[in-house]
Amino acid sequence: MSFRIVTTVSSDYRFVLDRCLPSWYHNSGASRIDVHLHETSTDRHRWAMNVIERCRNMQKAVHEAAGEKLLFLDADCLVVDNLAGGFSDRHPISVARWPNINLGVLFLNMTLGYDVVGFMDRFAARGIDYCTKHKASQGLDQNVMIEMLADIEGKVCKLHDAVWNCQIRNDTTREQATERKTRAKILHLVGAGGGPKKEREWKELMQRVL
Which end of the chain has the least Cβ crowding within 10 Å, N or C? Predict the structure, then answer.
């Protein structure tokens, strides 16, 4: 199966991508991987600015890949196994962790006739507006994307969390990480509380799954 992976990462998070990206090339089965790297905003609301950049890149990517299969993947995801199975043959959009979805893993099958491009255009517009108004990115997944997906729930495939978006946090033990790795295809290294990870702390987190 031919599909592409797209990720957007800020320069201060590049060290995370550098350590995860080899697993994408070795294990994902993707025919193409596109990395959009941008300089971290110096604005005090830099998280919101970074997510605005992400929304723009997501919108651009779906236009470029119209009629294809596209996976948006966060930089802090380790790929354990082939990801082709995440695309549904009946549903144009596949996500895990429903209803507390996480945009770090988003499968789009644009071969089924549904206007995924139009959907993502609307999401980008609403996402940019949300981040601009609230000066924050927290809540974008639940306050924007989940509302939009709920309106078209019949077109959404709900993937198994432990397989397709298995979270590894700062309080995850090595034994737990090892057990989760045996059944997961994607390990999402989200860190404690989902907050920003410093490089030393992130390295310690990653050592538990390698």
Answer: C
